[in-house]
Fold this protein.
Amino acid sequence: MDCPLCKANMEEGTTILPFDMKNGRVIVVLNVPARICEQCGEEFVDMAVVRNVEALLERAERDGLSMGFLEYGLPPLKVEAIRVICYQLMVICASFFVPRSSF
């Protein structure tokens, strides 16, 4: 397939898709299959992959994930484990911003 923008050759690869969700939620989907232009670097994702990403985002929203990384193609149990780890990291990061009382 040729790049629709510059007409150069496109290769199979992966990309990262960040999403700014409702209520300030941020979800990043890693290792999404894409076609990447060798010349201009433009990335294109097939519609079937887009539908799978949308399903991942819906599940993340339904599960209450407010910030985190999802790996494209992982089974639900691993996604749940990642959700738990991301929540724990969020709690740890938030603790750095809690005002400490003076001694």
Remarks:
- The mean pLDDT is 82.
- The two ends are 65 Å apart (CA to CA).
- The first strand starts at residue 10 and ends at 20.
- Helices lie at 47-62, 76-95.
